[in-house]
Amino acid sequence: MTGSALEETTVGRDLAEPWWRGAVGYEIYVRSFADSNGDGVGDLAGITGRLDYLSWLGVDAIWLTPFYPSPGHDHGYDVSDYCAVSPRHGTLEDFDVLVSEAHRRGLRVMVDIVPNHTSIEHEWFARARRYPDGPDRDRYLWAFPASGGGPPNNWRSHFGGPAWTLDEASSQYWCHLFLPEQPDLNWRNPAVRDDFDSILEWWMDRGVDGFRVDVAHGLVKDAELRDNPQIAPITEGMDPFDAFNAFEHRHDMDQSENVEVFRRWNRVCAPREAMLLGEVNAPWPDRQSRYVEPGALDQAFFLQAAFLDWAPETLLTMVRAMHDAAPQGISWVLSNHDRSRPVSRFGGGETGVRRSLAASTLFMALGGTPFLFQGEELALPDGVLSAGFHDPVSVRNAGATSGRDGCRTPMPWDSSPYNGFSTGDPWIDSELRPPEHTVEGQQADPDAPLHRYRSLLAVRREHPDMWRAPLEWIETADPQVVALRRGTIAVVANLSGRRASVSLGSPGWEPVFASQEGSRLDRPAHDAVSVPAESTVVLAQDHRRT
Ligand code: NOJ
Questions:
Q1: Distance 466 CA to ligand 1 centre (A)
Q2: Residue 474: count of CB within 10 angstroms of its CB
């Protein structure tokens, strides 16, 4: 591994286990985290300058969203060179410094790999388009119009409209499950597979500890490009994501061959202990779990929670089913750079904060590697835009969707101009956050959410049973309440609107963390614990009393 020696800090980690066992990750949306040069766009040097904060918070790994050269049609998820740094975000030297400074603090670094599509400006696509008979043509998916004219089949783009754009010069369409400027690669082509092996190697040689895999469920497409069954009507002005969901994605997504790609990647990454973490959005737990079978991806995100508004019973049912399908294979997340922040989705204000912390506390005890999205530790609501849309999804659909801007506003560090994110105008115009929503403001207030998240991570480190011991569910009478036991740890998540009492089956429990600020929990008298509404408690068995 290049970069400086990595300090082993994960308390309780057995060195025979991969580094991500017991770890907690932190997603950095690079454009909006910290800007070191005042051009209004977040950069790698800015992140390096904030590593002490992340160490203090107690996370073990950071995931960097794409910082590669890109025309920026999808804010970096349209990559035009996979082995370089965009001047917008810095230089390769900045990257090397970031990795070595992170490693010096015991922090792992994961980068985002975008294999479903390239940018329209990638040299592969430029050559594929220019030379229809050349060797690069088959790196992408091309098809002639349907017999009656128009796109070759009924596949839709996630971002609205058909998933096909006509290349007039060759009279063929190219496929794009996202923007036309994001042409989909042809994963049946061995040259594509070889190139990505080399890209993974290239970043591992620079010291990265893992990869977040964008659209991992989308890579391989039906060889015959068959129509998807339509399950709901599409109406004028419909939200593009709803229009996308009006189809059963039988032929464009979640093809069994995807897992073969990841078995191959695993052979490349496992010898170097680099984690493969997939953005997998498969429809059912049994489909999702196939991606994380031994020898494929190491983990896949639990994206369903990031889609939900406050719906305790649905959330808990999904959590249990997903956990049981892949006990260590799921990375538990409440949010990311594509979704409204949980505090806003869960009711806003103190209600949203209380509910987010209750759900996060449960997620910390489910095995797998939980990730916080930047600002989640501050319990931020969505940012408020002061002018127009920036997300291409909103721009392209003329406001039919509010899009993803609200979760992408700058990280609020302090109360200086632009909340200390940059000295220049940020790339996204948003209202200033109040002092109590900033890192500086919360560090000074012992009751702030930041300290609760920090304590939660510390409790997880102190009690490795919380993620390592085998999980047994404790049945409860209320579907809005779940309880579990892992070795010396018990967790009760009461997401209902009423106080709940749960019997843990044995006496001698000591509360070690309560999600709800100020709710001092008494040591349970016998084997029953009484948990306030919309809160989660973690208890440790006190052996002296058993
Ligand atoms: C998922 C990423 O998280 C999102 O931001 C992006 O727009 C799409 N994949 C397409 O790459």
A1: 32
A2: 16
